[in-house]
Every structure is written in structure tokens, then in C-alpha cells.
């Protein structure tokens, strides 16, 4: 198995070491002159391994005439133009499945933090305020109905946890899912009108951009809580800030943002909002599993087997043109 693989940035050591062991790895971050190094190696590159933030657009793909596969870390691949890759006959792989339970765990933690105001209560204790009186009573998860926007692999893992917590679940996606026992709403607006906990776990990209807008937040209502563990772009952040300011909704718990790692100061200044720095899958265990899948996709593909997890836009076996 001798193929030239490019990595533009030093991502997880497990990826760098795994790819280095199996292939001829070109570490672009070590080059003194990136442009010159890229020009020299580009004609030989057959595979690229990227993290979740490297933009792979048609211009990027066009640099590599022999490129066959882009192996990306993360299940979301809105940083990759997968349709452009398909047109060029390039397979794109992501890392679905291995992070579902971790992200769902994080999501339940975020829900409890946002609803029960747990980070605020911790800050209260550390500030010595308990000595002067009890922390104020919080809102509750009891009696809430949760609406999941994007009942996919992670959405279902969140739903299972919510059921165990005694919280009723319903959902919206483009399609009603057969065999799913939760109430389906054909529009997001209807879902928002019927729940007081809206959990966003839909993918990013042009199709979902700003799905959660001012109208949806208004429909969620004064006691409503918005949780976003999907992609920042799915929520109109300006509309959310306005809704929080005007108390159109109760509060929000966010793990993802429109312009990461930059988070609007208005959100940072809001004591009631809970903000996580995109840590949904960020445990050593789960990031290792994701990194290994990045390596395994390349190894399987270049061993003549099917890549393990191609994205739907670049199916395997390749669609006939
Ligand atoms: P998945 O299994 O593909 O599920 C995605 C769900 O979104 C599907 O149920 C799909 O249903 C729905 N959906 C897609 N496009 C939609 C649209 N235009 N309108 C409404 N619903 C739409 O993906 P997954 O593995 O659960 O991952 C979901 C997302 O979570 C990822 O894409 C990523 O952005 C995010 N994520 C975040 C973290 C984190 O650290 N916070 C970690 C992992 C993943 P239909 O096809 O019926 O519409
Ligand atoms: C990671 C994620 O932050 O898998 C995803 O879609 O958002 C996260 O698990 C990241 O993409 C890893 O590169």
C-alpha cells in the first residue's frame, strides 16, 4: 500500500501516526514554504486527511489531479463541498456512529445545566454567596416536552436519554421516520409551538442555515429553552441574542456557534445562558475512535476494500456517471 497522503495541519496524533505508518505522509505544517511544498507534492497526492475545520472546496480539490479520497474527522462535513468532490470522482468519508453516545451525554449535561442553572449555582458557591443565603430556585425539566430538530443517529441517542428522564419527545426533519414512536411535526414552526425544550442536532450547510430564526424562537415561547449541539449555522445567532434579551425565550444552552471559536460578547455577558466550547464529542475515548476511523477509511480504501463510511453524496461503489 504505497499512496501519497496529504495532511495540511497537525490534527490528532493518532491520525498522524496511523497515516504515517501505513502511507507516505506529507506533513504540510512542517514545510518552511507551504506554497512551494504544495506545488511540488500536489501531482502525487491520492488521499487527504483533514480535521473538522479545514475547508475543502472545489478550489482545494482542483490542486490534486490524482486525488481519490478525502478522509475527514467528525460526522458533520459542512466544511467539505461533497458535491464538488462527487463531480471529480473523489470519495469523501466522515466519522459517523462512533460519537453518538458521547454527544448525547454532553447534550443531556447541557440541558440540565441550562434548565437547572447548575453552572450558575456552582459559581454562586465559589463566590462565597451560599454563606449569605440559598441559591434561588431554578426552572425544571419536569413536565417539559422536548422537540428534536434532526432525529438522526445522535438525535435518537438524545431521545433515548430523555425518555429515561421521563421527558416526552417529538421531532422534525425533512421526513417522517417509519417505526419511530415519537410525534412527528412536518414543519419546524409546528414543532416549536408544541414544545418548551427545542434541541437542535441537525447538520450545517446551506440547506439548514438559520432554520431556527426569530419566528421559531417566538413560537418556542417565554418558558422555552433552546439547546444547540448540531451546528452554529442552523441557529440565527443575532435573532437568538435578541430573543434572549427580550425574554422571548427563557434561556439557551449552546455547544456550537456561527463563527467558532469566536462567541458573541452579548452571549458571554448573559449570566443565564450556558456556553460550551464545542465539546460534544471531546473525550479522549471518543476522539480516539473518530481518529482511528479517519485512518481506517484510508487503509481500507487503498487496500482495495470499500471505504468504511463514505458520505451519501459520494456513495460506494461509485455511482456510474
Ligand atoms: P444524521 O444521523 O445524518 O442525522 C441528521 C438528522 O438531521 C436526520 O435525522 C435528518 O433527517 C435531519 N436533517 C438533515 N437535513 C435537514 C433539514 N434540511 N431540515 C431538517 N432536518 C434535517 O447525523 P448525526 O450523526 O446524528 O449528526 C448530526 C449533526 O450533529 C452533525 O451533522 C454535526 O453537525 C452535529 N454534531 C455535533 C457535535 C458536537 O460536538 N456538538 C458532534 C457530532 C455531530 P431528514 O433526512 O429526515 O431531514
Ligand atoms: C468535532 C463534530 O468537534 O463530529 C462532528 O461533527 O462537530 C465534532 O465531533 C469535530 O468535527 C472533530 O473534527
CATH architecture of the largest domain: 3-Layer(aba) Sandwich
Largest sheet: 7 strands, parallel
Query: Percent range for helical residues?
Result: 25-40%
Fourth-level CATH superfamily of the largest domain: NAD(P)-binding Rossmann-like Domain
- Which fold name is given in CATH as the topology of the largest domain? Rossmann fold
How many strands in all?
12
- What value does the Rg take, in angstroms? 22 Å
Total domain units: 2
Shape: globular
Low-confidence stretches: none
Fraction of residues in β-strands: 5-15%
What is the mean predicted local confidence, pLDDT? Answer: 97
- Summed up, the helix count is 12
Small molecules held by this entry: NADP nicotinamide-adenine-dinucleotide phosphate, 2-keto-D-gluconic acid
Which CATH C-level class of the largest domain is it?
Answer: Alpha Beta
Q: Give the spatial strand order of the biggest sheet.
A: 8-7-6-9-10-11-12
**Distance from first to last alpha carbon:** 27 Å
Q: What order do the SSEs take from the amino end to the carboxyl end, as H and E?
A: EHEHEHEHEHHEHEEHEHEHEHEH
Structural class: alpha/beta
Amino acid at each position: 500500500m504505497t499512496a501519497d497522503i496529504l495532511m495540511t495541519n497537525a490534527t490528532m496524533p493518532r491520525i498522524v501516526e496511523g497515516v504515517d505508518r501505513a502511507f507516505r505522509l506529507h506533513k504540510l505544517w512542517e514545510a518552511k514554504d507551504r506554497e512551494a511544498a504544495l506545488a511540488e507534492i500536489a501531482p502525487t497526492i491520492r488521499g487527504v486527511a483533514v480535521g473538522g475545520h479545514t475547508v475543502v472546496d472545489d478550489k482545494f480539490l482542483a490542486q490534486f489531479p490524482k486525488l481519490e479520497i478525502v478522509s475527514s474527522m467528525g460526522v458533520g462535513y459542512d466544511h467539505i463541498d461533497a458535491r464538488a468532490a462527487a463531480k471529480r470522482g473523489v470519495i469523501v468519508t466522515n466519522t459517523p456512529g462512533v460519537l453518538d453516545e458521547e454527544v448525547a451525554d454532553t447534550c443531556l449535561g447541557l440541558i440540565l445545566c441550562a434548565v437547572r442553572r447548575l453552572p450558575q449555582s456552582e459559581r454562586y458557591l465559589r463566590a462565597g454567596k451560599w454563606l449569605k443565603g440559598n441559591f434561588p430556585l431554578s426552572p425544571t425539566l419536569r413536565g417539559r416536552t422536548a422537540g428534536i430538530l434532526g432525529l438522526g443517529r445522535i438525535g435518537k441517542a438524545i431521545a433515548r436519554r430523555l425518555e429515561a428522564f421521563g421527558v416526552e419527545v417529538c421531532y422534525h426533519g425533512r421526513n417522517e421516520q417509519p417505526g419511530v414512536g415519537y410525534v412527528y411535526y412536518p414543519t419546524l414552526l409546528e414543532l416549536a409551538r408544541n414544545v418548551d425544550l427545542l434541541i437542535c442536532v441537525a447538520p450545517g450547510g446551506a440547506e439548514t442555515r438559520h432554520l431556527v430564526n426569530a419566528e421559531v424562537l417566538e413560537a418556542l415561547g417565554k418558558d422555552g429553552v433552546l439547546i444547540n449541539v448540531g451546528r452554529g449555522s442552523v441557529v440565527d445567532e443575532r435573532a437568538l441574542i435578541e430573543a434572549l434579551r427580550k425574554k422571548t425565550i427563557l434561556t439557551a444552552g449552546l455547544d456550537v456557534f456561527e463563527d467558532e471559536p469566536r462567541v458573541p460578547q452579548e452571549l458571554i455577558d448573559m449570566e443565564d445562558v450556558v456556553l460550551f466550547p464545542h465539546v460534544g464529542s471531546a473525550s479522549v475515548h471518543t476522539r480516539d475512535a473518530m481518529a482511528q476511523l479517519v485512518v481506517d477509511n484510508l487503509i481500507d480504501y487503498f487496500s482495495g476494500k470499500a471505504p468504511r463510511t463514505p458520505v451519501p453524496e459520494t456513495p460506494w461503489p461509485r455511482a456510474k456517471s
